[in-house]
Design a protein that fits this description.
It is built from 8 helices and 4 strands; from the N terminus they run αααβααβαββαα. The chain has 172 residues and is an alpha+beta fold. It has a domain of 108 residues: Glutaredoxin (3-Layer(aba) Sandwich), CATH 3.40.30. It has a 4-stranded mixed beta sheet. A hairpin with a 2-residue loop joins β3 and β4. The longest helix is centred in the middle third of the chain and has 17 residues. The radius of gyration is 18 Å and the shape is globular. The N terminus is likely disordered.
Length: 172
């Protein structure tokens, strides 16, 4: 299993490809830190100096992922939050969903392969989390905790999700 986010690191961004390869490597001596970008990036990017975070976010491979984290058993409020989240994103961001700059992903965190999200995003309950990813690196994320406060007011819920997603999309 791998982590996209490590709260112990200085930066909130962890390279997923590097993390996967670190876990797969078994060595007696510590492996030196990789000095080049992942192989799937164009050669021109591999030769660049370390770009600023703003430059990285503006790359062509940037996208926003809206995760709805749920468990196996869901109450009606949890189902409503998922439905409103999906509908708000579909209503306001159909173009971005279509071109891949935005994704909506419901995730059952009780499945073994998804348990890492609990620590990655410091989840304490069912949550809608926005994640800005650029070149397989998570640049930032935000738990939209106010969905619980706004679930009884569909219009305010939709507006809240719209405003937060727009902020993230401006950085892609």
């Amino acid at each position: 299993m791998y982590k996209e986010f490590s709260p112990k690191s200085e930066s909130k961004a962890t390279n997923i490809v590097e993390t996967r390869s670190e876990k797969a490597t078994v060595s007696v001596e510590p492996a030196p830190a990789p000095k080049s970008q992942p192989l799937k990036e164009p050669a021109t990017k591999q030769k660049q100096e370390t770009p600023s975070p703003l430059t990285e976010v503006k790359s062509q491979n940037s996208k926003v992922i809206a995760y709805y984290f749920h468990g196996s058993f869901r109450c009606s409020t949890c189902r409503t939050i998922e439905q409103y989240s999906h509908d708000a994103i579909q209503t306001y961001f159909a173009k971005e969903l279509g071109n891949g700059t935005l994704e909506f992903r419901p995730v059952n965190i009780e499945e073994p392969e998804n348990k890492h999200f609990i620590q990655d995003y410091q989840l304490v309950t069912r949550s809608l989390v926005l994640s800005l990813v650029s070149d397989d690196k998570e640049m930032k994320w935000k738990n939209l905790a106010d969905v619980w406060k706004l679930v009884r007011d569909k219009d305010k819920f939709f507006q809240y999700v719209k405003d937060e997603v727009e902020k993230f999309l401006k950085e892609t």
